[in-house]
Structures are given as structure tokens and as C-alpha cells.
Specification:
By secondary structure, this protein is an alpha/beta fold. It folds into two domains: about 120 residues, Rossmann fold (3-Layer(aba) Sandwich), CATH 3.40.50; about 100 residues, OB fold (Dihydrolipoamide Acetyltransferase, E2P). A five-stranded parallel β-sheet has the order 2-1-3-4-5, with helices on both faces.
């Protein structure tokens, strides 16, 4: 679960940020809760009872502004990650004093906001189990245990250790949206977990345990690069 606070004294700005956050969180494998505040004072009043994991904080606010709020948090020893929202680039230097996570200039571009949140959650948000609809059952599963997925018409075979197979009611493209970033298409009908790849040839991938799945020539370069990156950068999920 990720709790995001949005603090801005402009209701239209809050609404726009909320819309972006709703879009960003739509297919995430964890729940996202959004708290809205129209002043720094209201945030400080609620924060002890409604703690958050990260805050999108407008700097130019009436009375107590965003930079002053950030300094109050730091003075109390609170290192809450802060993404400042501002229309003025001159604030960026001052932000080093409060160790801001990032600055976004108004009007906020959703691609830049998404990139900042993705980097943060990749490091700080635990990977939760997902729920797969299989037949008439809903099954909780750790995506880290999925070796690969194979399209079967409108359904998907989900291969897990010990040669077990789950038949998921979702198509492979829909399934890919809720899986972690270390899953990659190696063929239009196959989605493989990088952590289970033992070796790669031009036309096949060998999975730990000796099983082989097809590798599209068109996707060879991308898969090979991601495989090398996954292990050289220690991104073992």
C-alpha cells in the first residue's frame, strides 16, 4: 500500500493531480490511497493521525507555504519524501536544505510525475501478492514465483515452480499489466520472469529446471539486454 498526500491551496490543481495519480495507480500491484489538503496547516493537523508515505507539496501557498512546512518536518526529524510542485525554478536551490525528493514545475506533466513515482516505488514499496481469477476461484500469488506465462486463447497458463500450472481467466496482455517490471514478452504468446532465465539463444530461452520456451527473433535484442541488466544491476525481484 502507498499513501500519497497532495497539499495545494488551489482546488483545481489538486483535482488535476488527483486525476494523474488515479491514472498512474490504475494497474499497480499495490493499493494507493490519496489524501487531499488545501493548506499546510490542515496537513500538519491531520498528519499525526493520517501518516503518508510521500507528499506532493505546492510551495506557493497562503500563510504557511510549502517550503516552511518542509522545514518544520525536517526540524522535527521527519524525513517524509517530498515532491515539490512549483511555478518558479529559483526554489530548487533552497530545496537542497530540506532534502526534497524532486521538483516538478507547473503545469505538471504527467509523464514526469509518473517517472518520479515509479522510481520511488521501485525502491520503497514492497511487492505485494496479486490476485488471479482462475476458473471460479480467486488465487493470491506472489508474482516472484511465476516462472513464465503462456497465452491460451482468451486465457493464460501461469507456470509456477514444481511444474504446477494455473489457468488464469485473463488474457496475457491484461495479465502483463499487473505483473512486476521484471516480466518481459519474449514472444507474442509468452511472458517470462527474468529471474528464472538460465540462458538465452537466438530462438529459445532456457528456464531454470531445463524447460525451453520460444524467443522471437524480433524481441531477442530487447530480452537479452534486459536479462543482462537485471543481473548486472542486482535487480533480483
Amino acid at each position: 500500500m502507498l499513501k500519497i498526500a497532495v497539499c495545494d491551496d488551489n482546488e483545481e490543481h489538486i483535482s488535476a493531480l488527483r486525476k494523474m495519480l488515479d491514472e498512474w495507480s490504475e494497474n499497480k500491484p499495490f493499493a494507493v490511497i490519496i489524501y487531499e489538503y488545501q493548506s499546510a496547516e490542515s496537513f500538519l493537523f491531520s498528519y499525526p493521525d493520517k501518516p503518508c508515505d510521500i507528499i506532493l507539496l505546492d510551495i506557493e501557498m497562503k500563510n504557511l507555504n510549502g517550503m516552511e512546512l518542509a522545514k518544520k518536518l525536517r526540524q522535527s526529524g521527519d524525513m517524509l519524501p517530498i515532491i515539490f510542485i512549483t511555478g518558479y525554478s529559483e526554489y530548487i536551490g533552497e530545496g537542497y536544505d530540506v532534502e526534497a525528493l524532486h521538483y516538478l514545475l507547473k503545469p505538471v506533466e504527467k509523464e514526469k510525475l509518473f517517472a518520479v513515482l515509479d522510481r520511488y516505488t521501485k525502491k520503497h514499496v514492497p511487492k505485494n501478492n496479486i490476485v488471479l481469477s482462475c476458473g471460479d476461484k480467486n488465487i493470491h500469488i506472489d508474482p516472484g514465483n511465476i516462472r513464465y506465462c503462456e497465452a491460451r486463447g482468451k486465457k493464460t497458463e501461469v507456470h509456477i515452480p514444481d511444474e504446477n500450472i494455473l489457468i488464469c481467466n485473463s488474457g496475457i496482455n491484461d495479465l502483463q499489466k499487473i505483473l512486476w517490471e521484471n516480466f518481459i514478452f519474449c514472444h507474442r504468446s509468452y511472458l517470462v520472469n527474468l529471474r528464472f532465465i538460465k540462458s538465452i539463444s537466438k530462438t529459445e530461452i532456457e528456464i531454470d529446471g531445463g524447460e525451453n520456451i520460444p524467443l522471437s527473433r524480433r524481441l531477442y535484442k530487447e530480452v537479452n539486454e534486459r536479462f543482462i541488466e537485471f543481473y548486472t544491476e542486482g535487480e533480483n525481484k
